[in-house]
TrEMBL record:
Lineage per the UniProt record: Eukaryota, Metazoa, Spiralia, Lophotrochozoa, Mollusca
Coiled coil feature spans: none
Protein name: PSMD12
Limits of the PSMD12/CSN4-like N-terminal domain: 48-265
Organism expressing this protein natively: Mytilus edulis
One Pfam family recorded for the sequence: PSMD12-CSN4_N
């Protein structure tokens, strides 16, 4: 290139450089070799080497010689690393990036080189200082946004390992990786999932919900995304379990169940199927729930979990379900499992929400029975209704919300539209 530093100028600088470090003199054509050998000769002479390289860097930068400037900058940081002078490394990174008219491509290569030293630092203090320096000099620079994002993720991991989960979450939330044009889609999704995980860890469910919307689930249709897909739905299940959104949880488990890798593993397929069945039953009745539960019922793979298939059939037929008989038949299976059918965590009373889900399960039985009664009765006395629902008469009043009561007689008027339609 015509604007590169002249061969004679570079020879003069490198002649002096080689004299200082007792290297045989090399012409400008052999500068890469000289730079490669320089670190081994710089022991005890780091400051002299950096001064010489800064002088040469000024010439190459002024001449817009991107290639030479890049090699000089990476050599400077490599010298500091090879001599284990971490303070000098951080100082020179700051000095170089503040130079007027610094070439972006050269700075990028230097930052990339320095980033490789983060995991090679001798102690945590040096590591944190280097990360802080690199994050400072990359702030607001689009051309090194990926490097800054990776450094931020490393810093968040350090904070989390130190027990500072809230601080780790706040640090990682600084990144808006969905706007990074140079970052690959897979890495973006990984970052967003990590943001979701940390928000859940600090129990910030609202922010988790907001962040989750940044991921388009169509991405998981691409090959090689199974691991990310399963991680995403596991986080969404955890989020919606806190919210008590049973229908959403059912959809999440159904998405997991439909994953080819899950269907290829019979044990994982049966486990996912069990969750789909239970959450389809737990979901409040509406048109969407009714459609979903009937589609689940038609799945041929339910033959592999016969007890759950029988349970699901109870909720898809217009017959009264006797709660005591249901408990006698299925309670042990649902709560404790069996040798052929391990229990899920859904009704585990030792876990958070297990007892509540069992109560909701009983309510779904009552609601199902009321809908069945609506098909056969136009009115019914409270005592008879309580008998059919296997409830105390006082409780049956509160359970029923869609009819009209008068003198202990319930009139079922347009119950299909009024009862549990929310």
């Amino acid at each position: 290139m015509c604007n590169r530093v002249g061969k004679g100028q570079r020879d003069d600088v490198y002649k002096f450089l080689c004299q200082v470090f007792t290297l045989p003199f090399l012409s400008a054509d052999h500068i890469p070799d000289a730079l490669q050998k320089l670190p081994t000769r710089a022991q005890g002479k780091l400051n002299e080497a950096l001064d010489i390289l800064l002088s040469l860097e000024k010439q190459t930068r002024t001449a817009s010689d991107t290639h030479s400037t890049s090699r000089i900058l990476t050599t400077m940081v490599r010298l500091c690393f090879e001599t284990k002078n971490w303070d000098a490394l951080c100082e020179n990174i700051i000095i170089i990036t503040k130079k007027r008219g610094q070439i972006k491509q050269s700075v990028t290569k230097m930052i990339q080189e320095a980033c490789t030293y983060v995991e090679k630092t001798p102690n945590m203090d040096a590591k944190l200082k280097l990360i802080d320096t690199l994050r400072t000099v990359t702030e607001g620079k689009i051309y090194v946004e990926i490097e800054r994002a990776r450094l931020t993720r490393t810093l968040a991991k350090i904070k989390e390992d130190g027990g500072k989960v809230t601080e780790a979450a706040n640090i990682l939330q600084e990144l808006q990786v969905e706007t990074f044009g140079s970052m690959e889609k897979k890495e973006k999704v990984e970052f967003i999932l990590e943001q979701m995980r940390l928000c859940l860890a600090k129990k910030d469910y609202i922010r988790t919900q907001i962040i989750s919307k940044k991921i388009n689930t169509k991405y998981f249709e691409d090959a090689g995304t199974t691991e990310l897909k399963l991680k995403y739905y596991q986080l969404m299940i955890e989020l919606d379990e806190h919210e008590g959104s049973y229908l959403k949880i059912c959809k999440h488990y159904n998405a997991v169940y439909q994953t080819p890798e899950i269907k290829d593993d019979k044990d994982k397929m049966k486990e996912a199927s069990r969750y789909v069945v239970l959450y389809a039953i737990l979901a409040p009745f509406d048109n969407e729930q009714s459609d979903l539960i009937h589609r689940v019922k038609d799945d041929k793979n339910l033959e592999d979990i016969p007890r759950y298939k029988e349970l699901l059939k109870c909720f898809t037929t217009t017959e009264i379900i006797n709660w005591k008989q249901l408990c006698g038949t299925y309670e042990a299976e649902l709560k404790f499992g069996s040798a052929s059918s391990p229990a899920t965590h859904v009704f585990n009373t030792k876990l958070e929400g297990g007892a509540k889900r069992w109560t909701d399960f009983k309510n779904r039985v009552v609601e199902h029975n009321i809908r069945v009664m609506a098909k056969y009765y136009t009115r019914v006395r409270a005592k008879r209704m309580a008998e059919l629902l296997d409830l105390a008469e006082a409780i049956s009043y509160s359970q029923f919300s869609g009819g009209y009561k008068h003198d202990k007689i319930f009139f079922f008027k347009s119950i299909e539209k009024q009862l549990f339609s929310s």
